[in-house]
UniProtKB/TrEMBL annotation:
<dbReference type="InterPro" id="IPR050793">
    <property type="entry name" value="CMP-NeuNAc_synthase"/>
</dbReference>
<protein>
    <recommendedName>
        <fullName>N-acylneuraminate cytidylyltransferase</fullName>
    </recommendedName>
</protein>
<dbReference type="Pfam" id="PF02348">
    <property type="entry name" value="CTP_transf_3"/>
</dbReference>
<dbReference type="InterPro" id="IPR029044">
    <property type="entry name" value="Nucleotide-diphossugar_trans"/>
</dbReference>
<dbReference type="GO" id="GO:0008781">
    <property type="term" value="F:N-acylneuraminate cytidylyltransferase activity"/>
</dbReference>
<feature type="signal peptide">
    <location>
        <begin position="1"/>
        <end position="24"/>
    </location>
</feature>
<dbReference type="InterPro" id="IPR003329">
    <property type="entry name" value="Cytidylyl_trans"/>
</dbReference>
<keyword id="KW-0732">Signal</keyword>
Length: 258
C-alpha cells in the first residue's frame, strides 16, 4: 500500500495536466456501514486559487498547515464516519496526503473563482451514495474545537436537517436607504445595553452540516436547523495575510494562557 501511495503521488505531480478525473481515491480508510445509522462525512474544500493568500489552505498555523490543523481535530470526533479533502491543486494534494487518506480530485469547473461551495459539495456527494449527511468544515477557521463538532453530531443523530456554527453579536447595525441611515436591529429611542438584550446570531463560517436531501436542493440550511454557538474569540476567519498573522498570535496567546 505504501509503495502504491508513493508511486501515485509521483505520477500525479509529474503530469502537466490531467485528462481524467482522479476522483475520491480512498487510500486507507475503510468505511464501516451500520444499518440504520446515518453516515456523516466531513469534507474540507481546499481550492488552490485563493486570492488573498495564495494556497491559503496550506498556510502555516503554528507548526502545521491549516488543513492539517483541522483534520487533526476532526479525527478526534466520535460519530464522523469519514473525512475527506476536496481539491484541484497538486500542491495542496501533495501537502495533505500525509494527514488525509481520503482525497477527492475536484473538477476545475467546481474550483473556479465563480463556483460556489454548494456546487462543489454536490459534485462530491454525487460520487458517494453511501453518505447521508455532509459536514463542510472550513480549515480557514483555525480555532475549530472538538467540542463544537461533537455538539453538531449530537443534533444530526436526531431529526435535525442541518447544523451550522454561529457567533453571538451585540453590534448595533445600520443601513443606508435613500441617503438616509436607518437602524436595523434597535430603536433609536431605546438603545439597548449589551447586558439587556440577547444579541444576534451571526454565521461565522466554521462549519455547515446538512443532509443529502437539502444539499440536492442547493441548500445548506432550512427551517429545521440547529446552531452551535462559538465564542467570538474563537471565530476568526482567515482571508488575508493580516488575519493569518493575528491567528498565529492568538494561538500563541491561548497556549500561554493554558
Amino acid at each position: 500500500m505504501f509503495n502504491f501511495i508513493v508511486f501515485y503521488t509521483w505520477a500525479f505531480l509529474s503530469l502537466n495536466s490531467l485528462t481524467e478525473v482522479v476522483s475520491c481515491r480512498n487510500y486507507k480508510f475503510q468505511i464501516k456501514q451500520v444499518y440504520g445509522v446515518k453516515h456523516i462525512a466531513a469534507v474540507i474544500l481546499a481550492r488552490g486559487g485563493s486570492k488573498g493568500i495564495p494556497l491559503k489552505n496550506i498556510s502555516e498555523f503554528g507548526n502545521k498547515t491549516l488543513i492539517a490543523n483541522s483534520i487533526e481535530i476532526i479525527k478526534a470526533v466520535p460519530g464522523l464516519n469519514s473525512i475527506w479533502l476536496s481539491t484541484e491543486s497538486k500542491k495542496i494534494f501533495a501537502a495533505s496526503l500525509a494527514v488525509c487518506e481520503n482525497i477527492h480530485w475536484r473538477a476545475e469547473k467546481f474550483a473556479s473563482d465563480t463556483s460556489s461551495s454548494i456546487s462543489a459539495v454536490q459534485e462530491f456527494l454525487n460520487l458517494h451514495p453511501e453518505i447521508d449527511v455532509i459536514g463542510l468544515i472550513q480549515c480557514t477557521s483555525p480555532f475549530l474545537q472538538k467540542s463544537f463538532l461533537i455538539e453538531a453530531v449530537k443534533y444530526l443523530r436526531s431529526q435535525i436537517d442541518c447544523v451550522f456554527s454561529v457567533t453571538r453579536s451585540f453590534k448595533l447595525r445600520w443601513s443606508s436607504k435613500l441617503k438616509n441611515l436607518v437602524p436595523l436591529n434597535f430603536d433609536l429611542k431605546s438603545r439597548p445595553r449589551r447586558q439587556d438584550w440577547p444579541g444576534e446570531l451571526i454565521e461565522n463560517g466554521m462549519f455547515y452540516f446538512a443532509n443529502r436531501k437539502l444539499i440536492n436542493q442547493g441548500l445548506f440550511q432550512n427551517n429545521y436547523c440547529a446552531v452551535v454557538e462559538v465564542p467570538a474569540a474563537l471565530s476568526l476567519e482567515i482571508d488575508t495575510p493580516v488575519d493569518l498573522y493575528i491567528a498565529n498570535k492568538l494561538k500563541a496567546y491561548f497556549e500561554q494562557e493554558i
